[in-house]
Design brief:
CATH superfamily of the largest domain: Phosphoenolpyruvate-binding domains
CATH class of the largest domain: Alpha Beta
Bound molecules: 3-methyl-2-oxobutanoic acid
Largest sheet: 8 strands, parallel, barrel
Number of strands: 8
Helix content: 40-55%
Shape: globular
Strand content: 5-15%
Order of helices and strands: HEHEHHEHEHEHHEHEEHH
Distance between the termini: 50 Å
């Protein structure tokens, strides 16, 4: 199934891609203009990630972003959607307390943004919430490994599940998420061998970020892969553009033209 042949990507399409052995492409977006480009380029999934807290708002963690702010970003992305599946992160504090609150947050995202699915972080601890959200008809994507909303517990962004006990818990959590009805799971920053084992043990797809090539799909944060954010250079990141350099150069040329009275010229005025 070539990307262009799929009319509208749904969670069923994502499942079929895993069965067909075709890799799933996912990228983050937080606004209308970039989402429109990514959708037209043929991306399977657009994630309105809570990484918006970092890359859009300049916070150092994903914790501060609110449910209403996530909905604002999601609404902008949904307006651009022709084909891609839209997944929205439920932000920190909007699902951890109990499954009723988790369901209320998921419903608010779906009603107010028009997105197709939600994502939340964690395994066993959030299983009741996953079941409740799924039983309300809302597809859920899980997220295991390095879960940035728990950064204060981890204390560092290093690779997770290198120790046997954490790897065993992750494998168990992945199965629990699948049993609870999750349609896919993000695996972030874990050893490739562990991601391979998890991906092969599940019938639902895994989407990796820093989790090696054996995942059923891959996700990158748009600012990292387009080279907008140049401070973040982890080993797993492949930078496809150097937009930071290009934008800086373009703006410097514009400043020079304005200062030198070279812009606008005769053809650029009324
Ligand atoms: O918020 C985000 O961008 C994410 C990805 C890193 C998977 O959750």
């Amino acid at each position: 199934m070539a990307p262009k042949e799929i009319k509208k990507v749904t969670t069923n399409t994502i499942q079929k891609l895993k069965i067909a052995g075709e890799k799933i492409s996912m990228i983050t977006a937080y606004d209308y203009s970039f989402a429109k480009l990514f959708d037209a380029a043929g991306i399977d999934i657009i994630l309105v990630g809570d990484s918006a807290s970092n890359v859009m708002a300049g916070h150092t963690t994903t914790l501060p972003i609110t449910l209403d702010q996530m909905i604002y970003h999601a609404q902008s992305v949904v307006r651009a959607r022709e084909r891609s599946l839209i997944v929205v992160d439920i932000p920190f504090g909007s699902y951890q307390s109990n499954s009723e609150i988790a369901l209320a947050s998921a419903i608010k995202i779906m009603k107010e943004s028009g997105a197709h699915t939600v994502k939340l972080e964690g395994g066993e601890e959030v299983i009741d919430s996953v079941k409740k959200i799924v039983s309300a008809g809302i597809p859920v994507m899980g997220h295991l490994g390095l879960t940035p909303q728990s950064i204060n517990k981890f204390g560092t962004y290093v690779v997770r599940a290198t120790e046997k006990s954490e790897a065993e818990k992750l494998k168990k959590d992945a199965l629990l998420l699948q049993e609870a009805g999750a349609f896919a799971i993000v695996l972030e920053k874990i050893p490739a061998t562990l991601a391979k084992e998890v991906s092969e043990s599940l019938t639902i797809p895994t989407i990796g970020i820093g989790a090696g090539k054996y995942c059923d799909g891959q996700v990158l944060v748009m600012h990292d892969m387009l080279g907008i954010n140049t401070e973040f250079k982890p080993r797993f990141l492949r930078q496809y553009l150097n937009l930071s350099e290009q934008i800086t150069g373009a703006v410097q040329r514009y400043i020079k033209d304005v200062k030198g009275s070279e812009f606008p010229n005769e053809n650029e005025q009324y």
